[in-house]
Specification:
Elements lengths: L2 H17 L9 E4 L8 E4 L1 H7 L3 H15 L4 E7 L2 E6 L1 H11 L14 E5 L11 H19 L3 E8 L4 H13 L5 H4 L3 H25 L4 H7 L1 H15 L2 H25 L5 E4 H4 L4 H9 L4 E2 L5 E4 L7 E5 L7 H16 L3 E7 L3 H13 L8 E6 L2 E3 L14 H19 L7 H21 L7 E3 L12 H19 L22 H11 L1 H10 L4 H20 L8 H24 L9
Parallel strand pairs: 5-6, 5-11, 6-7, 11-12, 13-14
Antiparallel strand pairs: 1-2, 2-4, 3-4, 8-9, 9-10
The chain binds one RNA strand of 77 nucleotides through α2, α15, α16, β14 and α18.
RNA sequence: GGACCGGUAGCUCAGUUGGAUAGAGCAUCAGCCUUCUAAGCUGAGGGUCAUUGGUUCGAAUCCAAUCCGGUUCACCA
């Protein structure tokens, strides 16, 4: 139990005893005491004033005395300033916290709770390579999965691959027209980039044809519909749906190119999936659901045969669920897949990591699932995240203003290399060790950068300034870890110091905690709460901010006080444990973000 | 036009259930390497929390209106 909730309990008990009436935690508030005042935690008294009709000072004094009377070994004193009751905590509490948890690698993580969650993320299109926006999605999906695991959930990571449809046919047509049989191998190009180039090529050609048609007198709309390359693409989609062998063959080949490219990127950034759904397999799902919905009169049919649902009573629009030609639409597939997920895995919760441009769509999806009476429809959660914009504006693939994922990774790793070489601290590393370090640092910087911001907010990336390695960054946190490891390595060589040994012994009683030591401890105590908070909010930035705070606070302590050359043996032992626990929390927290930490850097 | 999201320091972002004098990083300026890694530390300057009104002991936080920005409202996916 966290110290805040344990104080809450004690205060509730004391109040009930004093005033002979029941109190709940919401009747008052517990905060960390501001550093300028004496004390550790503060009870805000104002809300009690109303309930008890007494002055804040009177309540504060009664409560303070009662708390100390009931918890003699826990609270050591109190003071009241302007309606705030500041409580001081017995030092042994912090000593015990450190003593009991410093070596616990699983500190802050919960026992398995028997619940299953599916996290769907990444969900790429197979017509172009991944860009910065996809990276945000991937890092978020991964991190949220790790956070759920740390909170005791069993997590199934899934992806739905958008491998069919008109956009896929566009790159296929362009390849047929312009490639002359070129392949990723023959051009020495990464497969996803190779296909993406033809997608761009399609758009260039299409634009050209539309302009030509407009010049010969066609209006814009007709031109866009009748451009030969577009007509060919539409024909190809029909051929694909009919299963025409040469189209299927080309489709398979080109998708395979993309997958092999994606594999490289996913491996590099550390994404993987337990289940991969392909839209070419799922796009017919949901058709029988439409029939059921029609029978139950949740859906209705228009004269032309198309099937709809009326959501106007819920403040939304009317939504089509099946076309007049009997084919299913996007939302129908999603309903089908949602149901399939439940049936296959019996999941308690289904999380979709999808950009906020789909907020409306996901709202509709959930509502329809509810109306259809699907099990667990209430436990569908859209983890909606904001776009990554550039300082110059939005990323647009057609205007060539996308930040390519592979390029960015390369750049980050190269920057890591450059910094490392300039500093010259790891000259004895082997080639392999160096490359691993560059990866850890480069990717760490990138992931931290994308995860430290609240997911739901649109964020801005400046390609000129790129991503920093100083300050509120991944490498800053990694550096703190590496420095601690350096000390621990050094001390491990000394005998007879045993790492797990208590710093409180009979012949050397515990010395008072210094201000900076205590600050670190107070923060470390909050780690379990941070993990829980991050889970409830589905928000990795909680962890990123927390872990930065820990690193920063530890660094202040580190420059001020020596660990290996502490004043006394007991102090040394305490600080070694403090450093160990800090390192463990950093490593654990970074792992929740999908970021590795180096032993040296 | 309807719905949803956002607006906090020059820039990028925190800010818990409404709590004490609104915080970090970058950038700028001034310091700190003979002692555990300076990718670090210490300090300074920098704010009409978009605006106005309301709720109350107390508002960046809640409510209303307004302004600005974004997303969305397809027989596309």
């Amino acid at each position: 139990m966290s110290i805040v909730s344990s104080i809450q309990k004690k205060v509730t008990a004391a109040l009930s005893a004093l005033y002979n009436q029941p109190f709940v935690e919401k009747d008052f508030q517990i905060n960390l005491t501001k550093p300028e005042f004496e004390g550790d935690y503060t009870v805000v008294l104002f809300s009690l004033v109303k309930l008890l009709k007494q002055s804040p000072d009177a309540i504060g004094n009664q409560l303070g005395q009662e708390l100390i009377r009931l918890n003699a070994g826990f609270f050591t004193g109190y003071n009241i300033i302007k309606g705030f009751l500041n409580l001081s905590i017995e030092e042994s509490y912090w000593m015990n916290l450190l003593q009991n948890n410093h070596a616990d690698i699983g500190y802050g993580k919960k026992e398995m709770n028997g619940k299953k969650v599916m996290v769907e993320y990444s969900s790429p299109n197979t017509n172009k390579p991944l860009h910065l926006g996809h990276l945000r999605n991937n890092f978020l999906g991964w991190s949220v999965s790790e956070i759920l695991k740390a909170n005791g959930y069993k997590v199934i990571k899934s992806a739905i691959v958008n491998d069919r449809g008109i956009h896929i046919c566009k790159s296929m047509i362009a390849w047929q027209l312009f490639a002359n049989g070129a392949t990723p191998e023959s051009t020495n190009t990464k497969g996803d980039h190779f296909v993406g180039d033809y997608y761009v090529r399609f758009n260039d050609e299409y634009k050209l044809q539309v302009e030509q048609l407009i010049q010969t007198g066609a209006d814009k709309e007709t031109a866009e519909k009748t451009a030969p390359i577009m007509k060919a693409t539409q024909q190809m989609l029909l051929d694909w749906e009919e299963g025409k062998p040469e189209v299927i063959e080309l489709w398979k080949t080109m998708n395979q190119w993309v997958y092999s490219g994606f594999d490289v990127t996913y491996k590099r950034i550390g994404s993987n999936f337990d289940v991969v759904y392909y839209e070419s397999n799922t796009y017919l799902l949901g058709k029988n659901i439409v029939q059921q919905g029609l029978d139950k009169k949740i859906f209705y049919q228009k004269e032309d045969g198309s099937i709809w649902i009326d959501l106007t009573a819920d403040g939304l629009d009317e939504k089509i669920v099946q076309r007049k030609d009997g084919t299913s639409v996007y939302i129908t597939q999603d309903i089908g897949l949602a149901l399939q997920k439940y049936e296959e895995y019996k999941i308690d919760q289904s999380i979709y990591v999808i950009g906020n441009e789909q907020n409306y769509h996901m709202k509709v999806l959930q509502l329809i699932c509810k109306k259809l009476g699907m099990p667990n429809a209430d436990n569908i959660f859209h983890l909606s995240y904001g776009m990554v914009e550039l300082t110059s504006g939005k990323m647009k693939s057609r205007e060539g203003t996308v930040v390519d994922a592979d390029d960015l990774v390369d750049e980050m790793v190269a920057t890591a290399k450059q910094h490392t070489e300039e500093l010259g601290k790891v000259k004895d590393f082997t080639e392999d060790e160096l490359n691993e370090l560059y990866d850890i640092l480069g990717l760490g910087a990138m992931k931290f950068y994308l995860l430290r911001v609240d997911p739901k907010k649109t964020m801005v990336f400046n390609p000129q300034e790129s991503i920093d390695f100083h300050g509120f960054t991944g490498p800053f946190v990694q550096y703190t870890y590496a420095r601690i490891q350096s000390i621990l390595r050094k001390v491990a060589g000394e005998s007879p110091l045993v790492n797990g040994e208590s710093f409180i012994t009979n012949d050397s009683p515990a010395e008072a905690l210094l201000k900076l030591e205590k600050e670190v401890l107070v923060l470390l105590e909050q780690y379990p709460a941070a993990i829980e908070h991050a889970c409830i909010e589905h928000n990795p930035s909680v962890i990123a901010n927390y872990v930065f705070n820990v690193a920063k606070t530890f660094n202040s302590f580190y420059t001020e006080h020596s660990i290996a050359n502490a004043e006394t043996a007991a102090k040394k032992q305490l600080r070694l444990q403090l450093a160990t626990m800090t390192a463990n929390v950093i490593k654990s927290g970074m792992q929740l973000l999908g970021i590795r930490v180096p032993e040296r850097m």
